[in-house]
């Protein structure tokens, strides 16, 4: 039963037990292990870490299992865990130029210094469900070659960013360097203030809902905010080192490495009488291998930079407020679904009010001069 | 696995028939965007699902298929699509342009002139040439119906007044058979003149937007311009670093992080043959 007048506590307890049972499924089937989730559902783990805004594979894995694979719910679990963690300092900005690259592509240039590395991707697989009853094996092109090992470059490898090459050629504005080294406010400790600076916007986008960001970026591409086709300058996926200088040590140490996806998009700027024609960039960085999201962030980063100048409110994806206030899926999922909660009292007031209005309407119909 | 699970060329025959009907209508009304019941394909939207559906509906066992992307036979997406049809239809594939009966392309028209009987299939991301002026479909439908193309000319005029020239570099709009303005798909404007009075049949498929349109053989395709600002193609100061061609579309390749660059043909098949001809 939904909610009885009395007995709410029993109902809630029973419901918790039921969801735990439903999650576990029949006892005859072995329980899925955290190791299996971590190693075989890696992209789900990446998504949950990104939306959960916490790089903690173990927490994400547990959350996925606990939520029956509902990734938005899992992200919520991670957020609720994250909020209890103590902050002990800031790392140095990660150096993505020194990334240990798994995958690196450019849609703008055929060849780039350091080369294009296709790496592991579904992009060129054919979406044909393999119904053959055989162990899960990687579908690769060309024809299955089970012996291919993923290529990973070293941290020392020179992989100049395509962005910097365009800056060197003078085709792109180096920007004010606003994001590097500046003391950054933490969106998880301070409320979002609008208009938001770029470092806050990028934080919000990095933890935003993948689907919302994707749909918003798509709307730009369909002409609701962009008037031309953007280009993928570079997309790279790999590991970066996290460096921290603990005050008690006074020198820099490596505390670990994290997998990230970095993207920058190029869009054309025809220039004006005062400014040189050239290109502008949109940037996105996200935890894990999360290409669709990194690309969406880059497109939105660009459109929100423009919105600082001309927020005409005509297109949602050019409005900071529209994008930043609605992209967090812990917020949106909570608020949309809060409608499941009892609203008996409010609705009762509505009923009384509507009945009164109807009474008045009928009375007026009978005596038109009262109108 | 493929053979007993999926039909020849993946799509079922009823879907193919529906697509072929839409193609016939598109040929009858050149440049007009015919809506069709686009199907989900096993490749993602934006990767050529419209083109793949056209190819799937048109392929017969005797066809010889060529697939290019950015002018090249060997780019990843072209290889993947070719492989898809090799698997699902077991058709013969080729890189040789004159030998192909059906050429599916993304972003280029081959440099080698096309001939009668050949079909070009284009992958189209945004079929509506007016999309970036007016994103609302009911509005653009009316604009096409009433030939209300003033806004397009105004946009080109604004380019000239702001920048001294028309700045559209690819997906350059063209007037087909004196009636409909059409997006030639994101081919560089360099390729636009190849559509004019071409002996081949050109079919355009937009999978996500679910529209098909066509340029039948020997049809006028005129790139929009003004008398005093005529249509211009891209030109290069360099020649191809591999085959020496000075008439083909060149790609720029960054060779190091000091800004060194190299220019080579985007059409790899043309480049190879031209190189042989020049004895390189």
SSE run of chain A = HHHHHEHHHEEEHHHH
Order of helices and strands of chain B: HHEHEHEEEHHEEEEEEEH
Quaternary organization: heterodimer
The CATH C-level class name of the largest domain in chain B = Alpha Beta
Unreliable residue runs of chain A: 139-145
State the major sheet of chain B.
7 strands, mixed
- The amount of beta strand of chain B, in percent, is 15-25%
* CA gyration radius of chain B, whole angstroms: 19 Å
**Radius of gyration from the alpha-carbon trace of chain A, in angstroms:** 26 Å
Describe the sheet with the most strands of chain A.
4 strands, antiparallel
Q: Note the overall shape of chain A.
A: globular
- Count of separate structural domains of chain A: 2
N-C termini distance of chain A: 46 Å
Helix content range of the residues of chain B, please?
Answer: 25-40%
CATH superfamily of the largest domain in chain B: Bacterial phosphonate metabolism protein PhnH
The strand count of chain B comes to 12
Mean pLDDT of chain B: 93
Walk me through this protein's architecture.
The complex is a heterodimer of chains A (371) and B (280). Chain A is an alpha+beta fold. Chain A contains twelve helices and four strands; from the N terminus they run αααααβαααβββαααα. Helices cover 39% and strands 13% of the residues of chain A. The longest helix of chain A has 23 residues, at 344-366. Chain A is globular, with a radius of gyration of 26 Å. Chain A starts with 7 loop residues before the first helix and ends in a 5-residue tail after the last helix. With 280 residues, chain B is α/β, with parallel strands linked by helices. Chain B folds into two domains: 2-223, Bacterial phosphonate metabolism protein PhnH (Rossmann fold), CATH 3.40.50; 235-280, no CATH class. Chain B contains seven helices and twelve strands. Chain B has helices spanning 2-5, 13-28, 49-58, 76-89, 137-145, 150-163, 268-277, and strands spanning 34-35, 64-69, 92-93, 102-106, 119-123, 174-176, 180-182, 201-206, 211-215, 221-223, 250-254, 261-265. In chain B, the strands form three sheets. Chain B has a seven-stranded mixed sheet with strand order 1-9-8-5-4-2-3. The chains are: A alpha+beta (371), B alpha/beta (280). The interface between A and B is medium-sized, with 33 and 37 residues.
